[in-house]
Amino acid sequence: METPTPKTDKAYFGKCTTMYELAGEMKLLERENTKLKAEMNRWRKVPEVMPGNGQRVVAHYAGVYQYRLATFWHDGFNAHFGYPNEADGKGSQPATHWLPLPDVPNTETDRTEENEL
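The chain above was modelled as a monomer; its predicted structure follows.
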């Protein structure tokens, strides 16, 4: 496979026409990636931001558990953070913060990307 160059492969390099522009674009992408990682790892305070009904999260509790995997649901009156199989509200605890789980990897997509490298 021929190594792409800015003059021959605009789709590969996008709007960059020089190595300096490419280096600048890479720095911008690295900063954006750092911000996205920080956002993904940011704990959300209850009740300021609530997960979706049925969403699995890592929940932080004051004085009960440090944290645990939990499913969030709202029964019309109260918000619940409980074990994933516990939709009846028994044993759910009031969480103080929650963290979304990352997306599950798509192994089919991962294999395709590895083959292209």
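The first strand starts at residue 44 and ends at 45.
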